[in-house]
Amino acid sequence: MTGTKAIIETGWKLDNSYARLPKSFFTRLNPTPVRSPKLIILNYPLATSLGLNVQALQSNDGVAVLAGNQIPEGALPLAQAYAAHQFGHFTMLGDGRALLLGEQITPSGERVDIQLKGSGRTPYSRRGDGRAALGPMLREYIISEAMHALGIATTRSLAVVTTGESIIRETEQPGAILTRVATSHLRIGTFQYASEWGTVEDLRALADYTLQRHFPDVDTDENRYLFLLQEVIKRQAVLIAKWQLVGFIHGVMNTDNMALSGETIDYGPCAFMDAYDPATVFSSIDIYGRYAYGNQPHIAAWNLARFAETLLPLLHVNQDQAVKLAQDAISDFTELYHSNWLAGMRAKLGIFNEEPQDKSLIESLLSMMQKYHADYTNTFRALTFDKPEDTVLFGTTEFAQWHELWQVRLGRQQESKASSHQLMRNSNPAIIPRNHRVEEALEAAVKEEDYSVMERLLDVLSRPYAHSPEQADYSTLPAPSTCRYRTFCGT
Ligand code: AMP
Ligand code: MG
């Protein structure tokens, strides 16, 4: 009985609305127990905001839940079914190594998914082992929390535990489980699954569920499924613009990795760009650069078109009309994305009002950055403090001319220099999770069981707009290397 008591004290308050969808959307399944769970990291502020007690979570019973060895009261673990276009090819997927425990109802009344990632095989595992390695789970923890601190909608990371079991990737790795928190795990791929293998009634049930969960203020008089499509498009336009503005490269924007909530999801081969170059790709499997930095807005539009296709039977009884509605909604994405991006870029340059020439001012800065291999984050940070650093870009006449134009532009707005500077501070991060810093933290954690490097990194990343002296150390670039930084999907 003590186990149950401790779990109740932990503060789990789980509901299972997803389990009330038609049965074909999931498979009920408990996690596969692991040998000897050990808590590696726990997100205190997130736990507290979810109504969970951090002491209880750290107890044996608390950790047993995070490892999948105990099922908290109210949980109804299940693997979600979904399909996807992976690098353009349609396929059936589903949670191959994750289980939804349930939806935690937070003290403020929000509903969030609690998912264990790496919790064992499921009917959707295909040839996978259902497990995850410590390095990639800590990587997801670091980058998702950094994204959250940057003000970008994202799934969150509550905890990482090691399992006491080894798993085989290229080498033997410590096994681990990440507890992921998301406003939901509904994806474009969930709709693709319903559209391909479900009935229209299944599809309608899923669409109604998504509306209720993410867009409850839908007006009953309007076409609710068109509203769903338009709102998902709007949220993606905001999200992708934010990625571009900080130089985030998702790396694997398959349609299963695009959440309808508008949160960034699935941190696999993602990484931040150093030198500005739209062609930047880190993922070892992205041979053709499909998911390169500069391609992300196009891919988002492509993925959203796949989403729109699934909704056609719900949009209108007349198919031509349905296609027209879908096409109009999709064609809005580009404009929505662009206006979000432009607004964000103006802020990065301290500009409050709008002038038609702003776009070319921004574009000429970016093309100089590309030409002179200027670091994306550090260039904007240097401009924020108007302290051009000793880089090739800042030494050129081209830049001097641009700088003058920019100053004149700032002079044409009413806001003071000080408010312009403040706007730039709040829009240009002092630091991002630099790839070499993330690797260094993971290496210490995985090879030496030294978590201090990661904890320090997480601490500085939690205040990206602080521009504090301790962050300076984290903004230095990696030593020049002959090998390009590569990320891997084999997580
Ligand atoms: P991702 O690349 O993380 O979006 O994963 C694509 C698909 O592969 C999803 O269905 C995952 O659940 C599945 N998957 C990834 N790794 C594993 C694994 N180790 N075992 C089983 N399924 C996996
Ligand atoms: Mg995925």
UniProtKB/TrEMBL annotation:
Keywords, alphabetical: ATP-binding, Magnesium, Manganese, Metal-binding, Nucleotide-binding, Nucleotidyltransferase, Transferase
Q: What is this protein called?
A: Protein nucleotidyltransferase YdiU
Please report which protein family the annotation says this sequence is part of: Belongs to the SELO family.
Known catalytic reactions: L-seryl-[protein] + ATP = 3-O-(5'-adenylyl)-L-seryl-[protein] + diphosphate; L-histidyl-[protein] + UTP = N(tele)-(5'-uridylyl)-L-histidyl-[protein] + diphosphate; L-tyrosyl-[protein] + UTP = O-(5'-uridylyl)-L-tyrosyl-[protein] + diphosphate; L-threonyl-[protein] + ATP = 3-O-(5'-adenylyl)-L-threonyl-[protein] + diphosphate
Cofactor(s) recorded in Swiss-Prot or TrEMBL: Mg(2+); Mn(2+)
Q: Name one GO molecular function term.
A: manganese ion binding
State the InterPro entries in the record: SelO
HAMAP family with a match to the protein in the record: SelO
Query: What job does this protein perform?
Result: Nucleotidyltransferase involved in the post-translational modification of proteins. It can catalyze the addition of adenosine monophosphate (AMP) or uridine monophosphate (UMP) to a protein, resulting in modifications known as AMPylation and UMPylation.
Q: State which Enzyme Commission number(s) the record gives.
A: 2.7.7.-, 2.7.7.108
Residue sites binding Mg(2+) per the record = N257, D266
Q: Does the keyword Metal-binding apply?
A: yes
